[in-house]
Amino acid sequence: MNVTIEEYSSMVKKASPNSRIIRDCLGAFFIGGLICIIGQAMTDGYSLIGYDIKDARCLTSVTLVFLGALFTAFGWYDNIAKIGGAGTLVPITGFSNAVASPAMEFKSEGYIPGLGAKMFIIAGPVIVYGTVASVLYGLILLIIKSV
Known about the structure:
By secondary structure, the chain is mainly alpha-helical. It has a domain at 21-122. The protein has helices spanning 5-15, 21-48, 53-74, 76-84, 92-106, 111-118, 124-146. Helix 2 crosses helix 3 (53-74), helix 3 runs parallel beside helix 5 and helix 5 (92-106) runs antiparallel to helix 6 (111-118). The protein starts with a helix and ends with a helix.
């Protein structure tokens, strides 16, 4: 079967879904915003029960990471991500999902070769390059301030 480039392009166009960019952007905006509102409410709540602002922010981060992993384990995070798209990737809950998803997927291979080795398959490069970038930025700042 010989298909020309034009025929192939026509077939691809027919099979491809229409872009829902407005809906996707609104979903990301509202779901991402909702996650941030929940985080701010947690920070305010921790502050109200007696934690100083630094501790409240730390507890909020820990709570959001835990909830992201919990929602991933129950399969809820994927359903939220279908609506929120990139709005679920940007907050810290997206990082938690990126670590928990491979851990859940590969747990049947065992704790060491599966869960331990594959857990950071997605988030590992983010951690490595984030750490390297922060060290480089720190060195640049140190050089600038010492001059």
